[in-house]
Amino acid sequence: MKQSRMPNHLQSFIVKMEKEGLPQVVIDTFAYYYKKVVAGETGLVFDKDIRPLNADEIESADNIGQYADAGKKVLKNAVMIILNGGLGTSMGLTKPKSIIRVKNGKSFLEIILKQAQIHNVTLSLMNSFSTHQDTLSALSRINPSSLPIIFIQDKFPKILRDGLGPATWPQNPDLEWNPPGHGDVYTALYTSGTLQYLLDRKIIYAFIANSDNLGATMDASLLGYFSENRFPFMMEVAERTPADLKGGHIARHKSGNLILREAAQCPEDELDAFRDISRYRYFNTNNIWINLPVLKEVIEEYGIIRLPMILNAKTLDPRDESSPKVYHVETAMGAALSLFENTPAVKVPRTRFFPVKNCNDLLEVRSDRFIFSEDQTLILNPNMKSDLIRINLDPGYYGTRDLFNERFLVDGIPSLIDCEFLTIKGDVFFEKNITIKGRVAITNTGKSPAIIKAGTVIDSDLIL
């Protein structure tokens, strides 16, 4: 499709966004990306324009422990911003992922509130228009001693792939809009007034992370390293494993700056290189540090934050494949790496990256492979034999949170500290005090549910 010959519906989009009451900065930002779409730009990043990073271009968190005291001194000037815009759709939910029970009967949100309290650091949540009300209700039930600062992610209108006009869906007008990706955190901070609110309270340093990653807490050494070196921006990265093929990797752009390339920005014929973990060794953990006064200067100088565009092809109703085909214009917050000079990437241990994206992850985190440290940071159990495990649960029986909970009761999560690989096929229920060791495949070949009895130890393949 030669999009550059398509009619330009920008004015229609502007009118639609004005009627929605969106701030001018948001409208200008969308207009910036829409002009790229009409011009036929795809947001793709080609191998010819980047090169892999060498180990000596990455600082290691192992080498910055001496900055911990400096970090502790500026904790009063720091904020932990948690991205709380995601619904648990990958686990069959329509509610915020942050309010589901994840560990020891506590939700992500409860644990994050406790982490902020223990670290004595200001907490802020960026909700989306889909998660805001449910999050407020959850906070009312939890009733924490100190409420987080809350602001709401902006939204962009969906673009019809046929003709590039505004998408309309009268039966559910909310579906005409999409969250613009977590790269919107910078604009939303500004337009909501939260950025100025923080600056007025002498909050200078922001640590930003996802709500489903309980390993990402405020770290004094990283904060001290960031503040003492007066970096405008810093990204935490980790070494890629075969499990990280989909995550965005960092590279050096031919301009000289570091760049983040997400999977959606990789040309299809270069995906093999994208997935080559020996070539592109470091992936973005989505743990970001940013200097807030610098952020304000950039927004006010340029009017908008010009992050690389991600153009996602979707259907208007994500649950209806026959609904009109649309584009979502999105950005990634880590892509701000390319906007600033002197921006480091710091290699952190995997202990700072434990996102729960699906029920396979939920089983691992709920199991004894993870424990909480004194500051409520989720850490690996030191008694484990292997740091890595591969879990493959049958999606037909464990693909949603409700199905998962039916088969793994609260006291029915098996011990996995000695397990390296687990596959479950078919319908299997687990009673309490079950231990799984080594590499195990459990298969129910029957039509009726199978039950693993309490106290069972499984150390080889099991066919039921």
Average pLDDT, to the nearest integer? 92
> What's the number of domains?
2
**In the CATH hierarchy, what is the superfamily of the largest domain?**
Spore Coat Polysaccharide Biosynthesis Protein SpsA, Chain A
CATH class assignment of the largest domain: Alpha Beta
Beta content comes to: 15-25%
Number of helices: 13
Structural class: alpha/beta
CATH architecture of the largest domain: Alpha-Beta Complex
Question: Which fold name corresponds to the CATH topology of the largest domain?
Answer: Spore Coat Polysaccharide Biosynthesis Protein SpsA, Chain A
Largest sheet: 8 strands, mixed
- In the sheet with the most strands, the strands line up as 2-18-12-15-11-3-6-7
The stretches of 5 or more residues where confidence is low (pLDDT under 50) are 1-5
Measured on Cα atoms, how large is the radius of gyration? 23 Å
Spatial shape? globular
- Total number of β-strand segments? 28
**Helix content, binned percent:** 10-25%
Ends: how far apart? 52 Å
Describe the overall structure.
The protein has 464 residues and is α/β, with parallel strands linked by helices. The chain is 24% helix and 25% strand. Strands 2-18-12-15-11-3-6-7 form an 8-stranded mixed β-sheet, with helices on both faces. Strand 6 (122-127), helix 5 (132-142) and strand 7 (149-152) form a beta-alpha-beta unit. It starts with 9 loop residues before the first helix and ends with a strand. Residues 1-5 have low confidence and may be disordered.
